[in-house]
Amino acid sequence: IENLIKTLIFTNQVPNIPKSKLIPEQNLFRLIISTFFNEYYVTRIKEIKDKITTTR
């Protein structure tokens, strides 16, 4: 699933088209995906930090 999402993100990045030209669905999609990834990675980093501190 993660690779699929990454692919979707990659294909959804259209640098040569201004954001205003994107359809609202694309902006929403981008927002949802970025939110999901932020949450996911923040959680993962926290878990890893917790592991490190407990092993010390």
From TrEMBL:
This is Uncharacterized protein. It comes from Ciona intestinalis. The lineage of its organism: Eukaryota, Metazoa, Chordata, Tunicata, Ascidiacea.
